[in-house]
Amino acid sequence: MVSRIDQIAQQASVSKATVSRVLNNRPGVSPQMRRLVIDAIDNLGIERPQSLRARSFGVIGLVVPESEEPCDRLFVKVAQSTLAKSGYTPVLCTHSKDGISEEDYIGMLCEKGAAGIILAGGTHAKIGSDVTRYADLVAREVPIVFSDGFNPTLRAPFFSHDDHAASDIAVRHLKNLGHTRIGLLISSVSTVPIRRFIDGYKAAMERECGLYKPEWIVMSHNREETGYVAALRLLRCGVTAVVCGSDMLALGAMHSVTQHGKLVPGDISIIGYGDSNLLAYTAPPLTTVRKAMLSMGTAVAHTLIDSIEGEETIMGESLFSPELVIRETTAPPCSKIDT
């Protein structure tokens, strides 16, 4: 009796090994060969296995947290554009504390048979978070790519900014200008990117300045208005420069400094993290460390497409290097001796 695999292999004019790989959704099969096998299954009237059933016209879920950062919106725009140009339909799913949750969005996308999912800066980025939902997706071989938050227990592609290097670059720039009392203003959320940014700051301060004081590290919610309040604490500590974990925090810090009778950068130098074209038009234009949003958004989208189409993808984390963008909010400290 001719087996089902034999029938499909004969119909598609491919080897039984190729049919087995396609049926089990294994890598090592070109998109063209995969298409031949699927067409043969349909022509023979054999029911497709769940992994090969049509997926909602190439819909891809882009699941991201609510964010006011312009650079985060740039990532979304680039990823959406790349997916659309490749013939897929990106669906933006923005989750928030008071709205639809990330888990609910993932559930809806799976129920609708989405072709794949991009998860940016979500629960996977939080230290100590439950990754059961993600592990289930990986086990079911749902095409999925993560960004901004590496978890080594998940066998999937991850793309991250080198946050450790970003704060290191910022501290070195300020030290080269003559600053040694350098504060850090960072989000209070416990995530892998924030932990790395803090670690980079501490290591750079110890190496470049000899020390840092615990009171020089102030945590706040990642919004401009909370950056305003948190910056007051750093001003009272006598720092002459502030490294901020986001551009929104940096803008809040700038406002706080000027509202309290000091000058940026005459009295206090400030560096942000992220970058957008809009920052060239702040008063003064903000010095920042630029995230490689264009490159990362493109890489995330192409990697997911490769996974969907059966191409082998690199598992683990890929890091994107930051770039210092010097504008007008950093300058030497106002006195020759930084005390």
Automatic annotation (TrEMBL):
Coiled coil: none annotated. The keyword DNA-binding applies. Residues 3-54 form the HTH lacI-type domain. The keyword Calcium does not apply. SMART domains: HTH_LACI (SM00354). The lineage of its organism: Bacteria, Bacillati, Actinomycetota, Actinomycetes, Actinomycetales. PANTHER family: LACI-RELATED TRANSCRIPTIONAL REPRESSOR, LACTOSE OPERON REPRESSOR. PROSITE patterns: HTH_LACI_2. Keywords: DNA-binding, Transcription, Transcription regulation. InterPro entries: HTH_LacI (IPR000843), LacI/GalR-like_sensor (IPR046335), Lambda_DNA-bd_dom_sf (IPR010982), Peripla_BP_I (IPR028082). Pfam families: LacI (PF00356), Peripla_BP_3 (PF13377). GO terms for molecular function: DNA-binding transcription factor activity; transcription cis-regulatory region binding. This is DNA-binding transcriptional regulator, LacI/PurR family.
